[in-house]
Amino acid sequence: MSPPLLKLGAVLSTMAMISNWMSQTLPSLVGLNTTRITTSDTLTQISPKEGWQVYSSAQDPDGRCICTVVAPEQNLCSRDAKSRQLRQLLEKVQNMSQSIEVLNLRTQRDFQYVLKMETQMKGLKAKFRQIEDDRKTLMTKHFQELKEKMDELLPLIPVLEQYKTDAKLITQFKEEIRNLSTVLTGIQEEIGAYDYDELHQRVLSLETRLRDCMKKLTCGKLMKITGPITVKISGTRFGAWMTDPLASEKNNRVWYMDSYTNNKIVREYKSIADFVSGAESRTYNLPFKWAGTNHVVYNGSLYFNKYQSNIIIKYSFATARVLAQRSLEYAGFHNVYPYTWGGFSDIDLMADEIGLWAVYATNQNAGNIVISQLNQDTLEVLKSWSTGYPKRSAGESFMICGTLYVTNSHLTGAKVYYSYSTKTSTYEYTDIPFHNQYFHISMLDYNARDRALYAWNNGHQVLFNVTLFHVIKTEDDT
Fold first, then answer.
1. Residues 380, 374: contact at Cβ < 8 Å?
2. Domain limits at 361?
3. Number of domains in the chain
4. Is the residue at 120 inside a domain?
């Protein structure tokens, strides 16, 4: 067993904690436990030196939260806390081996006596047969005495046979104990002659550090998109559906907004199961029509682009009224800078682990994408980043951990082609494919709680699972 694998073994006991930390899994959320996502692709794992590397995903093919951890090479927390049990087991085996050795010596001594006695009995039996054959030449009295002696010895023969069998069994048992002792000794040598208390403290320290890491595990770099899971088929070719990423685990309400214009009706469902069955719980009649399909529900409020304007509206579901509205300065609207599919998708509102965002284009940035972080209460622009990617060439986009990911098309063959990090103000071209099963995507938004992409795919409401990559420093310094 190599040291990296031992290190990995040391953290397997924390996987349950990781699963509890993460948001509930998609199947329990969706109510589609019979649906499976095939994830045949594997991620190349390396033995890192800079820190823990974590590949986290909302679900595996069996619908469970998963987290693959690769430990740093120099980390000494590589011993399993069960080494004490191994040592105790080895001691017991050694004690047993000693007892067997004593029993074996005594057995071998008795066995030699048994073999000698067996030889004498066989010789006596042969003589008895000879005498019996020639019994006419012997005196009847001597013959009778010899026969009685033989009758007394005959019952010992099966006992002696069983004794020989038992002696062989003990010999085999001794050999097996010797082999087991050798294996356990080898394992102990591989683990290392560390004090158990020291190992135990190392594991406890590791678990504490991993718990601290998990608090930061919401953010990572997009590595893979799998799926989709088809949740429902409903509505027109274009629309939006979503859940609130800041809602509690017990709150799984779904909001449904059909069409990209000429509509003000928002339908609410208590859960995705109710959404699938069509059990609507409430209907909201917005004061304004919306434009496009790029709305977002965040912390109990709906954020949408008011039709034929660059005004953003914040609408509270709790009070059924508008809490705030603000014009997004210089933002193009009404199909001036839409996504490739059109549909008044000029202004895309989205949320991630960091907060609320608006993605749009301006004449000042030559029609290229602008990213703005918004104050969720006032809708004020906190900061903006100007990218060099043409908004009209983008199929869709979504934010994960402050990074904008842009697809190159809304049709078959689409992939995540470009990303822009607001943390470093840098961009890169990517190649992350995903399966556009129904050939036309008009809405694609990331939900940080579910670790999933919600999509409206040609009248199909679907979910994509995402896998993020994390590097977590193991040293105290930042």
1. yes
2. 220-469
3. 1
4. no
